[in-house]
Amino acid sequence: MRKRQVGVFLVAMTMMFAFTGCRKKGPAPPPPPRADFRLPDPPAAPRGGVTSFSVEPSAIERGQSATLRWSTSNAVGVRIEASDGRVMGGCSDADGEAASAAIRAAMALEAARGPAGAATGANAEQAKSQLAKLEADATAAAQKAGMSLQDALTGARNIVSGATLPAASMAKNSLPPTGSMQVNPNDTVTYTLIVFGPGGVSRQQVTLRVAAPAPPPPPAAPRTITLSERISKEVQDIFFNYDKSDLRESDRAILQRNAEALRNIFRDIPTGFVEVEGHCDERGSAEYNLGLGDRRSTTTREFLVQLGVPAERLKSISYGKERPSCTESNEGCWQKNRRAHFVGVDQ
Questions:
Q1: Is the pTM here over 0.90, yes or no?
Q2: β-strand 273-279 against 314-320: which pairing, if any?
Q3: Pairing relation of β-strands 200-211 and 59-61?
Q4: Which of 117, 151, 309, 316 is the most exposed, having the fewest neighbouring CB atoms within 10 Å of its CB?
Q5: What domains does the chain contain, in order, with CATH numbers?
Q6: Which residue from 315, 289, 312 is spatially nearest to 301, judged by alpha carbons?
Q7: 296 versus 123: which is more confidently predicted?
Q8: C-alpha 185: how far from its chain's center?
Q9: Spatial separation of the C-alpha atoms in residues 305 and 314, rounded to whole Å
Q10: 242 Cβ contact list (under 8 Å, min separation 6)
C-alpha cells in the first residue's frame, strides 16, 4: 500500500513539471511611470546690461548740442529719458516688460526641446504635454509683445549666444542696442539709459551741464568823427585867377555851401577851429606869394564870416608857394595851386 502511494506522488510531480515546461513566458511588465517627471528648468535669464553710456561734450553753452552714445548687452528693450520728464526715445515700461517676458518664455521653450525629444516611454507623453504648454505660453507672450513666436525664439537664441537681438525680436519702439543721438537742452539735465533684459532691468545716468552763453561784448562806442575829418569831407577848396585875391562868382557859390557846412560842423563839434590857408603857384618870389596867399585867405575868411560862420573859429594863414598840390610847370597845375584850402584843427 505504501509503495503505491509513493508511485502516485511521483507521477503527479512528473506531470506538474511537464505542464509547467510547456507554458510560454510573456513580456515583462513595464516599469511604472515616474510620477515626478518634469522637463529641466531653462538657464537663468540675464538682466539687461549697460556696457557704456556717455555724453560728449559733457558741458555746453545754451544753444549748442551734445551727443549721447550708448552700448548695451542682453537688451530686449532700450529707452532714454531726461530728468526734465522728456522721453528722448525708446520703449515704454509695458512694452519692455512684455518683450522681456516673451524672450524669457522662448528661452524656456528652446531649452526644453532637447530633453523632451530624448524622453521615452510614459515620460515621453509627459514631456510632450509639458512642451506643448511651454509652446503655448511662449506664443501668447510673443503675441502680447507684438512679435511672432519665431522672432521670440530668435531673440532667445541670441541672448544665449551673446549676440545682439534683431529689431523684430525687441520691444516695440525700442532704441537700438547700440546707438547715438544729438541733444540740445536749454538747461543742465541728467539722462537715464534704461535697458530691459529677460532677467531684469539696468539703469545708468549721465549729466550734461548747460551754461548760459557768455554775454556779447558791449557794442563799441560809436566813433566820433573829428573836426578835421568832417572838414576834409564836407568843405571844398576854392580857386583864384593868376595874381588875384578876389573871389570868382563860381567860388562864391562854393563858399556859400561851405558856410552852411561849417555852421553845422561847429554846432556838432564845439571845440577846435579851421585854418583857411592861402596858396599860390610857383611863379613870383616867395615873399610876394606869401603876401598874395595872405590876401587870398583873408578874403575867403571874411566872406565866410559875412555868411554867419563864427569868426573866432576861423583863422587865416598863408603858405605862399611853399605847399603846392601839383608840381608840374603848366597852367593846369598852377590853377590847382592858386587856392584857399580848409584844414580842421582838433582841440
A1: no
A2: parallel
A3: parallel
A4: 117
A5: 49-211 (no CATH), 227-345 (3.30.1330.60)
A6: 315
A7: 296
A8: 10
A9: 8
A10: 281, 283, 334, 338
